[in-house]
Design brief:
Structural class: mainly alpha
Helix content: 55-70%
Order of helices and strands: HHHHHHH
Radius of gyration: 20 Å
Oligomer: single chain
Distance between the termini: 19 Å
Number of domains: 1
Number of strands: 0
Shape: elongated
């Protein structure tokens, strides 16, 4: 499948002399990997917790860590601009990550409430019933983020047609493509080859497949 994209770069000052599409893809991978690493770490800490209060403390700490990482990711993503028809790619990603951050924030509030214990006027039944709803919301957001990898890849496609009038090249050099693939492998490792990965790993796998298996040449390869 060939993905076509028309780009108009409006880089901020620090990116004026660099390939914005490469930096955008690199940041997408970094955020995907860092947030997934924090999720795995929080799961490990929760399993090692010896009491309910320890589990709640772990939840508070984990949601705060993930929220801070998402905030950092949003700030960096917001610095990128692409022209039609992909001008909505960055706002879409930012919106999804903002929603993801809000869900983690609410989860942290729930864990904090249980950690503080019974208090007048606090409806713990209602709070407890909100938890599975938030889990479902988070799963839906992550599911929506999975196909975003195709949009991220599309920003890397060079719009100059080859002699067959095909968009056959990427705007990045082979070394840059290899760095993106190496970053995906570093963050996700053998999990990229799992048959039923979670949505974060699936998004990383999808992007790696586009970079390595779709037949696009790099900018420094023959036209």
């Amino acid at each position: 499948m060939v993905l076509a994209v028309s780009l108009v770069s409006v880089p901020s000052a620090p990116r004026a002399q660099t390939n914005q599409a490469y930096e955008f893809a690199a940041e997408y991978i970094r955020g995907l990997g860092e947030i997934e690493a924090l999720r795995i770490e929080s799961e490990k800490e929760e399993k090692e917790s010896r009491s309910d209060s320890a589990k709640m403390a772990t939840c508070v700490r984990a949601t705060e860590r993930i929220g801070l990482e998402i905030t950092s990711h949003i700030a960096i993503l917001s610095g990128f601009r692409f022209g039609p028809p992909f001008e909505k790619v960055v706002p879409l990603l930012v919106s999804l990550y903002e929603s993801k951050r809000d869900v983690h924030s609410r989860m942290g509030e729930i864990c904090s409430a249980f950690l503080r214990g019974l208090r007048p006027g606090v409806d713990f039944g209602q709070i407890a019933s909100d938890a599975p709803k938030l889990t479902a919301q988070l799963e839906h957001i992550d599911k929506t983020l999975l196909p975003a990898s195709a949009l991220v890849f599309s920003t890397l496609i060079d719009q100059r047609p080859d002699d067959q009038n095909h968009l056959s090249h990427l705007s990045i050099a082979a070394a840059e493509r290899d760095r993106l693939v190496a970053s995906l492998n570093s963050y996700f490792g053998n999990r990229l080859d799992e048959k039923n990965p979670n949505y974060a790993v699936g998004a990383a796998e999808l992007l790696r497949n586009y970079l390595t298996k779709k037949g696009y040449k790099c900018s420094d390869e023959p036209w």
